[in-house]
Amino acid sequence: MKKYLKTAIYAQKIKDCKVLRSELSNFVVLNPIMKNFLRLFLLCIPLLLLTSCFDILDKVNVKADGTGEYTIILNGSKSKTRLASISKMETINGKKVPKKADIENKINEAAKIFKGTPGISNVKTSMDFDNYIIKLSCNFKKIENINAGLEKLKAQNILGKMIPTQIYSQNLEKKTLTRNKVNTFKTDYEKMSKADKEVFNDARYTSIMQFESTVKSQTNNTYVLSPNKKALKLEADILDLILQKKQIQNTILFQ
Amino acid sequence: MKSILLKTQKIIFVLFGFTLVFAQNSMKIPADAVFYMEVNGKELNNKINWNKLNPLLHELSKKNKETKENLSWTDYSKTGIKYDAVQYHYASFNDSIKAYNTHFIIDNKEKFQEFINSVKKKGQEVSNKKNYSYVDINDDIFVAWNGNRAILRMISYTKPYKDLWSTEAVADSTAVAVDSVYAEEGDTAYTDEPEKPFDYKEEIKSLKDDIKYLKESIKDNNNEIARIQKDIKYLQKHHKYPEEKESAENEEEMPNDAYAYDEEEDLAYKKEQDSIRRENFKIVKKNAEDHFDQYFSSNLEIEVPKEMLSFRDASSDVFVYTDYGRIVEEGIYGKMTKFYSYGQLFKNMYNSNYYYNLYFDKDKVRLLNNYQHKNSDIQKNVSAIYKGKKNKKLLELINEKSVGYYAMNVNGAKCFDMMYSLLQDSGENEYKKEMELIMETMKIVLDEEAIAKIAPGNGIFVLNELKSKKVEYTDYEYDADFNEKEVKKTKDIAVPNFTFAFATENEGYWNRIFDLLTTNKKLSKRFSKKGNLYTFKDEKNGGYVDQLFFTVKDGVVYLMSSADNILSVNQSDVSRKWAKDSAKYPLSGRLDIQKLLTGLDKEFKTPKERKALDAIRKNVGELYYKTEVKGESIQTEMNYNIKDSSENSLMYFFDVFDQVFKTKETEEKPQIL
C-alpha cells in the first residue's frame, strides 16, 4: 500500500510540474468561455499545418514451400519538406527529434537482430534521407520467423510495446496462411496529445501478400485479389486500422 | 477525456453566468492573490446578443444532456444573475491550495437557485448555513449564495510533499481534518505529523463524511459504503479496528498466483486512490466553507490593493492584473531558483506585474498590456531600451501588399545597462563580492559602444508573400500482380518569401563575416559571392527555403529569400502611413491572416481541411501590434480587426464559434448517399 501511495505521490509530483504551467496560464486567461473561443480560433490554423503524412508498405512474398521474402518500407517522402525542417529542430511536440545517426543506428541494430534470428537470411536495409524512405527486407524459411524477429526487436526496445509481433502464421498441410488479428490501439491513440494524433491523419498503410500458389478463398474481402489470383492487397488509412474501422486479419486458403 | 469535457462545459455554463456581474461594494482580495480580474458587465451586456447566443448554448447543453447530464437550461440570459454589472475574479495559491474565485450579484435568487439546480449533479444536496447556502457542483467547484450575492470557488488541493529543492521540513498551510490515510508509519514521502491518540468518535465522524462524499460523488460505490458502514458498526461496538486478520488468509492464497496478487494490489491501489480523493475532497470542502463563512459574515466589502489597479481603465470591458514575479517565485521555477546561487538573477528578471485592459470594440478587439517591473531602477533601464531611433531605410521595406511585418526600433546600447541592473544585487550575501567583480570585469572587457554599433537596435522582418513551389516526392504504384514500382510525383507547397533587415554602423564587420563564409573551406560549398550579394544555397534543395541572399548596403544588413527583395518599391499611401506609424514605436507589427491563409491554400487538400480553411478564411481578420513606453510602464497594444459580418467584436467570436460548431456537427452526422 505504501508503495502505491509513494507512486501516487511521485506521479502527482510530476503531474504538478507539468500542470503548474497550465495552471498558471489558467489563472492568467480570462475565463473558460473566452479560453475556449480563443483556443478554437487560434489552434485551428497551426494544427492544420502540422499534419504530415507517411506511408507504410508491408509486403510478403511466400513460395509454395513456405519460404519467402519480407519487405517493409516506411515512406515519408510526401512530407519531405516538412521533415527536412523538423530534422533541423531539437524537439517537436515536446519530443526529441532523432538525428540521422540515431535512425541509422536503430535500423542497423534492427537488421543485426533480424540477421541473428533463426530462419532469417539476406537481411538488407536502405535509408534515403533525402526522400525519407527507409527499407528493410529479408528472406525467411517459414513466415513465423518474421514474428520471432519482430518479437526480438520488441524485447530490445527497438519496436514499441504497441507494435504487434505475431503477424503471420501458415499451415502448409491445410494450405492456409493467416494474417492475424491485431490488438486495438484505440486506447493508446486516444491517450495521445492532439499534436501527436495529427501525425496519423493522412498516414496510409498498404499490405501486399504475393504467393506462388493460387488463392482459393479469403475471409476478409477488404483485401483485393489480383487477376491472376496470386496476390492480395489491402490499402487503408492507418487511422482506420487504429480505430478498427477496417480489419487487417485474413485467412487465405490456397488451391 | 469525456469527463474533462463535461467538466469544462459545466464550468463554462456556470462561469458564463458570472461573466457579467457587478458588486456594489469593494471586496477583500487576499494578500496572496496573484491574479485579479474585473469583468465590466455593464459594457459587455450591451454587446451580447442573447437571441444568437441562447440557441448556441442550448445546443451545447443538449449535447451534454445526451450524456445523461442534467444541463437543461434554455435561457442563459435569465439565470438570476445580474448581468449589467461588474464581476470580480481573483486567484491565489500557497503550498497546497490553488483557488480561483468569482464574486457576483444575484438579482433573482429563485431563478439563480433553479439555474444551480440545473447545473449541479442530480441528487446533490444544497447545504444551508446560517447566512448562506452552498453546493459543490463538482469535486473541486463550490458555489455559495445568499439573497443577493454569490461566489464560485474552484479549488485544487495538492498535499505538500517533501520538497526536492529544499531541505526544510514541509509545511501544509491547510491545517485541516485528520489525515489517517497519509500518516503511514515510516513513510518518508509524507510530512512527519505528531501521532494523535486514536479517537473513535472522530473516526466515525470522518467515515460518515466519507459516506456523504461517496453518495454525492461516486454512483457506483455501494460496496465501499457497505464496507465503511460495517467498519462504523464495528467501531461503535469495539472502539477500535479489528486486528489484521486478512494477512493469514492471504498468505495461503497468494504466493502461487501472481495474477491474483496483482489484482489485489490493484484493488488496494484503487481503494487508496478513492481514499485520497475523499480526503482531498474533505480538505477542499473545508477550505471552501471557511472562505464562504468569512465572506458572508463580513459586510461584503473588500479592498483591492492600489498596486493591482494601477493601470485599470474603467471603460475597458475586462481588466486583468497578474503578479508575474510571485507566480514564478511561488511556482516550480521559484523553487529551482532558490536551489541555485544565481537564483536572485532570475528573481530580478521576473519580478514584475502585468496589467491588461481588453476592449470589444465595434470593429476590433483591443488588448492593452502594461508591463511594470517592481524595481524602479530596472524599470527605468528597460524603458530606456524602448527609446530607440527610427531608421528610414528599414521602414521603406513596409508594404501593404505584404502578408505582415514586425519592426523594431530599440536602443541596443541600453541593453548593457539593463543587464548590469539585473546583475546588481543578484549575488546573495556570500556571492555579493564575486558578482560585483564579474560585473566590473564585464564592463572592462565589453566595449559596449563598439558592440552597439554592430547592431544598434533597428530591425525589421517582412513576410512579403507565400509562394507556391513544386516539390518532387516518391510514391509507390502497383501493377496487376501487385508488384510495387517507385514513381516520382510532384506536389505544390507554400514557401515564404521574406526579408529580414537590420541597421548597422559597422558595415565592415558584417562584410568580413560574409567574406569569411564564402572563403572558408567547409562553408564555401554552400556560400558564394556575386558582386555585393552573398548567396547561401542548400545542396539538397529539399527545405522550404532553397536559397538565402544577404548583403550590406547603406548601413543595413539584409537577409532575404529572394535577391529582388532589396530592390526599392514605391510605397503606396497606405504603406507610407504604416511606415510612419511604425517609426513612432519601438516595436510594431501587422499580420494579415487572410493573406497568410490564401498563401497556404495549397497546403489544405482534403475536403475536411478545405472546409475548415474556408470557414476560417471567411471570418479571419488582421492583427496589429505596437509597443511603447507609457509613463513608468511598457505598454503593448494588440488589435484584432474583425470582418464586418458581426455586430461587434464580441459577437464575432460567438459567430465564429457557432460556425465552427455547426461545421463539426455536419461532419459528425453520417453522410447519406
Q: Which chains share the greatest interface?
A: A-B, 60 and 72 residues
Low-confidence stretches of chain A: 1-50
H/I helix tally of chain B:
21
Unreliable runs of chain B: 1-6, 11-26, 65-70, 165-169, 175-194, 244-261
Shape of chain B: globular
Q: Work out the oligomeric state of the chains in this entry.
A: heterodimer
Strand and helix order of chain A: HHEEHEEHEEHEEHHEEEEHE
| Helix segment tally of chain A | 8
The beta-strand count of chain A equals 13
Radius of gyration of chain A: 22 Å
Strand-residue fraction of chain A?
A: 25-35%
Q: Got a strand count of chain B?
A: 20
Q: What strand order characterises the main sheet of chain A?
A: 5-6-2-1-9-12-11
> How many distinct folded domains of chain A?
2
What helical percentage do the residues of chain A reach? 25-40%
Tell me the helix content of chain B: 25-40%
Largest sheet geometry of chain B:
20 strands, antiparallel
Average per-residue pLDDT of chain B, rounded, comes to: 77
Specify the structural class of chain A: alpha+beta
Distance between the termini of chain B: 32 Å
Range of strand content of chain B: 15-25%
